[in-house]
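To illustrate the input format used throughout this study, we show a single complete record. The first block contains the structure-token representation of the backbone; no residue identities are included at this stage. The design step must infer an amino acid for every position from geometry alone.
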């Protein structure tokens, strides 16, 4: 149903786009991670805009994702000009972000909690800038460019202090959107806390299978299960749901069930959905990594413009 909403909005159908009161009132991600607003911005305005060398692409993607907030990226660009690895200066970037923080501006997305990257007494955003400098000094971009798999890229990122397993997986996925990596999203998955909770609400007994096994099972059987249930799932212009998408779907099921099935037991004690749906008036262009070869299948001759929540 959430994918139906996405396609209705892409086609320009007038709202409301669903009769489901929960989906209409609350904020949910798109079934395809790459179609979400922040991922779309990263793909078009960060990964594929600017120098395409591995040093510069990885620098931009990591800088963006450590904050995961469009306004923070745009503030840095407005204040410092083109954001480049070769002249990255922690003190200079810290000055811009500290001034914004003192003005009461939010620097981080609420999508997931970003702990400080060290135990130093400096502000959290500086610890992430320092982490980025450590990554550059360790020549992480070159190592990632040589990674033979998503799992290897994940392991490289996991080797840095402040990068946990779920964050390492998310960062590897974002870098894999770019020209630096080109590995299948069906190769490797790491379940986050929301997905683990959603899986508990969907399956009373997983027969000893891991959360990652369950995600893979769902991804690999999607077409058969759609057919059994008589569901006409409209995919992403020929691209089926990938492991990262199914991981996210379990997270969204966890959220949805808080309202519709409040007695379903997951992980943790969350009982409501915090963020409300609100259409944005400023649309963005729908555009996917060119290597996926789906941009020419969009419903118009030019990229579709879509207002996101």
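Output of the design step:
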């Amino acid at each position: 149903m959430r994918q139906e909403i996405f396609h209705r909005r892409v086609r320009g159908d007038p709202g409301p786009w669903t009769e489901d009161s929960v989906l209409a009132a609350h904020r949910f991600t798109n079934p395809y991670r790459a179609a979400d607003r922040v991922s779309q911005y990263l793909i078009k305005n960060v990964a594929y805009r600017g120098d395409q060398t591995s040093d510069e692409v990885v620098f931009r993607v990591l800088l963006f994702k450590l904050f995961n907030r469009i306004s923070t990226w745009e503030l840095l660009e407005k204040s410092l000009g083109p954001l480049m690895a070769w002249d990255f200066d922690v003190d200079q970037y810290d000055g811009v972000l500290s001034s914004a923080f003192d003005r009461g501006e939010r620097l981080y997305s609420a999508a997931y909690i970003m702990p400080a990257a060290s135990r130093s007494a400096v502000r959290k955003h500086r610890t992430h800038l320092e982490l980025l400098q450590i990554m550059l000094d360790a020549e992480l971009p070159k190592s990632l460019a040589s990674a033979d798999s998503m799992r290897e890229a994940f392991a490289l990122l996991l080797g840095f202090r402040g990068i946990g397993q779920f964050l390492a997986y998310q960062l590897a996925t974002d870098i894999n959107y770019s020209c630096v990596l080109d590995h299948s999203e069906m190769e490797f998955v790491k379940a986050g806390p929301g997905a683990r909770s959603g899986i508990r609400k969907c399956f009373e007994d997983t027969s000893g299978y891991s959360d990652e096994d369950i995600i893979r099972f769902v991804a690999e059987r999607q077409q058969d299960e759609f057919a059994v249930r008589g569901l006409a799932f409209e995919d992403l212009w020929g691209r089926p749901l990938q492991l990262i998408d199914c991981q996210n779907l379990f997270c969204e099921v966890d959220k949805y069930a808080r309202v519709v099935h409040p007695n379903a037991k997951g992980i943790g004690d969350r009982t409501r959905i915090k963020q409300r749906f609100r259409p944005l008036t400023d649309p963005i262009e729908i555009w996917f990594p060119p290597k996926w070869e789906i941009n020419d299948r969009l419903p118009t001759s030019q990229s579709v413009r879509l207002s996101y929540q």
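Structural context for interpreting the output: The mean pLDDT is 89. The radius of gyration is 20 Å.
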